[in-house]
Amino acid sequence: MDNGRKTVVVTGFGPFGHHTVNASWVAVKELEQLGLGPDVDLHVHEVPVEYQTVQSLVPSLWEQYHPQLVVHVGVSGAATAITLEKCGRNRGYKRLDNSSFCPGTHCCVEGGADCIDSVIDMETVCKRVNTSGLDVSVTVSKDAGRYLCDYIYYLSLHLSSGCSAFVHVPPLEQPYSGEELGHALRAILLEMLEQLGQDRGTNHYEHRH
């Protein structure tokens, strides 16, 4: 991290099912317009809703950028608040993706831990954003849903020793606009970066590649 600069990678998902416009990618594009300040190099990527693409793409993002933080964003039709996911799970992937594929073993990483927690204290991030004056509601969850959202999160957590995050957003206008979601993401990521910065010098920054 030269001169205190940080590299952050943020992904959103492409269309799937009835989500012909995926709110997660709209929110990430809004975040890209806003940026994270002059000291943060922000890279965004749209991810197809496909297990095999995720399996190859996520390691390549870590390898290419060596980021301090990767945040994956996905849409949840059931969500009415912006949801910070605390952990990713390795098993239970039985739902077919956009290519009508699911892992034959129904798991993400053979021999991996059943569950990996993020090193980020999501409760603290949630509390700070909820009291920051932004007109959005943020909550915390321990179940990212055993589909591509959970799958990409677990894989990133596995590759980064927990230095990843996942944010679920509601569908557009239910109740937030893309612009509101973008501003919320920006506030959430800045809190996460501040928290990680306070932990600098610990092994949170010693990623395995």
UniProtKB/TrEMBL annotation:
Active-site residues annotated for this sequence: E85, C149
**SUPFAM superfamilies given for it?**
Pyrrolidone carboxyl peptidase (pyroglutamate aminopeptidase)
One GO cellular component assignment for this chain's record is: cytosol
Q: Which UniProt keywords apply?
A: Cytoplasm, Hydrolase, Protease, Thiol protease
Give the UniProt subcellular location, in the record's own words.
Answer: Cytoplasm
One GO term (biological process): proteolysis
Q: Which reaction does it catalyse?
A: Release of an N-terminal pyroglutamyl group from a polypeptide, the second amino acid generally not being Pro
Q: What is its main location?
A: cytoplasm
Protein name, UniProt field: Pyroglutamyl-peptidase I
What is the organism field in this record? Synaphobranchus kaupii
Question: What lineage is this protein's organism placed in?
Answer: Eukaryota, Metazoa, Chordata, Craniata, Vertebrata
